[in-house]
Specification:
about 450 residues; alpha/beta; eleven-stranded mixed β-sheet; 21 strands; about 25% helix; about 40% strand
């Protein structure tokens, strides 16, 4: 199908969508119209675009997605909890096909002054907190999927941690998707604000069910004010025909610490964009990523860490394990502005190929405009260490068990860096089970 024909479908879907939200604030209606206008002008990216060179979105373009009119069938809680690695005791806000599900949500375990709400409800009582962050976010002018999300902005998660508040329990933002008799699309818009001196652990969990195609096109903005400590997680366990495009931007003020863990376990086509802005002296950013691919899965991770102020530190480590005919893309850029003296930035991408037919395209980049910095970057693509395999075989392990153990060790290094113990344990169990199953 021609891209122009698919674009027209989304433009028509927007007209139907807009009619249902006449009561929205004027600024939000204007923002949506600006978003759809930019999408109309930009069109879908193609492999002729440098930033999408190795990722073909034709499977998304050629599918007739529609917004869900209702949440459809109610997912069984046990299915939702199991697939998203949570249980009923966790603080969570849940969306099914982009629609808020209060019956699955509970945040009673949080301090009363911490706000965790669905975005549409938060907008009805907004006292000017939300509007500036949404209306001044201009990424939609350059990025087609962000423009599409902006046009369909209605729902998502809103989190506000007040100044000096320490939230000890994790906050889960869970997004479940499935084809509801037809290919469904959702466009979650998330906003997380951690005020000065606050601390929070937040998990975005994306899970899919069923055999029908669906599209999750999500935009998340995280704001860390002075001295805030943010531990952020994004876990993707999409269904076999799930398409996921995500854009995460994080801005760190002076002495703010932001750590992001990105884990991709399944899905048909996944594109993750992360832009981290170190906008205060002494800010710290850590990006950890793990992707496990098999079959024909395709995952594209694009990251950019922008050192805009002096004495900021960043560390990035992304690891991938690929089998089958899967395809991974890593494009990581470290940008050091001219005023960002004393910056310290380190970036590494490591890939383990378990199949001769798996493909990795990796491109670590440095762009440095300051002269007093410490920066390094590198990438590796390899196979299991033959000496290590021989050693394990000599200790009585068969070939399959030896390969599973080495693959687990490669991946568990990143899982072990997670600070949420229950999530770490469940992911660890998942890794063990997955590698054993892949060799059976």
């Amino acid at each position: 199908m021609k891209s122009s024909q698919s674009k027209e479908r989304f433009l028509s879907a927007f007209e139907r969508f807009q009619k249902g939200f006449a009561a929205s604030p004027d600024w939000l209606r204007d923002l949506r119209r600006a978003g759809i206008a930019c999408f109309d002008e930009l069109g879908f990216p193609t492999t002729r675009d440098e930033e999408w060179r190795f990722t073909n979105v034709e499977p998304i373009v050629s599918t007739s997605f529609e917004s869900a009119n209702g949440a459809g069938k109610i997912l069984r809680p046990e299915d939702l909890y199991s697939r998203s690695f949570i249980d009923s005791a966790y603080n969570r806000i849940v969306f099914v096909n982009g629609i808020f599900c209060p019956e699955h949500s509970s945040v009673r375990g949080l301090p009363s002054n911490v706000r965790v709400e669905n975005l549409s409800a938060a907008l009805t009582t907004d006292d000017g907190v939300i509007e500036p962050y949404l209306s001044r976010d201009t990424r939609y002018r350059q990025e087609a999927f962000v423009a599409l999300n902006t046009a369909f902005t209605e729902e998502g998660a809103f989190v506000l941690v007040p100044r000096g508040v320490v939230v000890t329990e994790p906050i889960y933002l869970v997004f479940a998707s499935y084809g509801n008799g037809f290919p469904v699309m959702s466009h979650p818009r998330n906003l997380v604000i951690c005020e000065a001196g606050s601390q929070a652990r937040i998990v975005e969990s994306y899970v899919g069910f069923g055999e029908q195609p669906y599209l999750t096109n999500v935009v998340t903005k995280v704001v860390g004010e002075e001295g805030a400590i943010i531990d952020y997680y994004r876990v993707q366990r999409e269904a076999s025909k799930g398409y996921h495009v995500g854009a995460l931007s994080a801005r760190m003020s002076r002495n703010c610490s932001f750590t992001a863990h990105s884990v991709t376990l399944s899905g048909s086509l996944i594109r993750n964009d992360i832009h981290a802005l170190l906008d205060g002296e002494g800010a710290t950013c850590v990006l950890n990523g793990l992707y496990l691919l098999d079959g024909k899965q395709h995952v594209d991770n694009h990251t950019e860490i922008d050192h805009a102020k002096p004495r900021a530190t960043s560390q990035e480590l992304y690891k991938g394990i690929l089998s089958g005919t899967s395809h991974a893309v890593f494009n990581g850029k470290i940008l050091v502005q001219k005023d960002a003296q004393k910056s310290d930035a380190r970036q590494t991408n490591k890939n383990l190929l378990l199949s001769e037919n798996a493909v990795v395209n990796t491109k670590p980049q440095l762009e440095i405009h300051a002269d007093d910095v410490k920066c390094s970057h590198g990438s590796t693509i390899g196979q299991l260490d033959t000496d290590a395999l021989f050693y394990l075989r000599s200790r009585g392990l068969d070939a399959a068990d030896a390969q599973s153990l080495l693959s687990y060790a490669f991946a568990s290094d990143l899982v072990g860096r997670m600070r949420i113990a229950p999530l770490r344990a469940r992911l660890d169990d998942y890794l063990l089970t997955s590698f054993r199953r892949s060799q059976s």
